[in-house]
Amino acid sequence: MTDIVAYFNGEWMPQADVRIRPFDRGFYVGDAVFDLTRTFDGRSFKMAEHVDRLYRSLKYARIDAGLSQQEMTDVSEEGIRRNEAARLDGVGDWHVWQAVTRGTGVFRGPATLATVMVFYLPLGASTYAPYYKAGAHAVITRTRSYSPEALDPKIKHYSRMNFNIAEQEAFDVDPEGWPLLLDQHGNLSEGNGYNVFIVTGGVLKTPKDDSILQGVSRGAIYELAGRLGIPVSEEALQPYDLYTADEVFFTNTPSCMLPVTRVDRRQIGDGAPGPITQQLLATWSEWVGVDIVGQMEALNAGP
To answer: How far, in Å, CA of 247 to CA of 191, rounded?
Structure first.
């Protein structure tokens, strides 16, 4: 396959040559923020929204990337162009991943210049493809989301051990389980990289944004629901609301949206992806000009 190139501290280089120093604070103490968008047929989707969220995270964390927001956008788009041959050589589409660490330094000491990376990962499909028709399984874990008093969930950061532990807990319950975390009050928050929606009585419901990442794909659902005349409500939701919902789905950048048909081994609705979920997914495919499910299935099938 054609070599993939990445941006690293002002230079373009083969992605395989990118190296992080052991005492870079992003690696050493998780002192880093990031964001992730994807392409559809080689075109970025909502790049401006993702970069805007990245710079909100940087501002909150007091990290200076050394690039303006527009420069970060331009670099990210340039990498898509530089990697077009690799995309056509079998990648299909990209995850575009921007990451910024505070740089090297010691505790309570000044850091050097920030480490800035933009790298490009093949979309892949094996994680998601089987679930568009069968539905994913969710498990509500014992591990909770970060409290806003400890670390505001609106920051997209690398300090994610709670997500990793929650993932292992979900696997203990269901080998196909995807973790869902509660907040400190016992309300539903989010998964380890995805937001959650339920459908009850024709209304889309999702947790309020005081204990979750404000997902760009979550916002895309609001747009699609507005086009389709589907009401949306942000509410404090409990496990009861999941168990008794007509439909459940996740949203994230790689999959766009993923139906969920079991929660804690309990069947949701009739055990198949529901009509509103399928309507939203079909409308999203029309929006971006790519059959999302068809692309994932084709990538999963391989050459």
So the answer is: 17
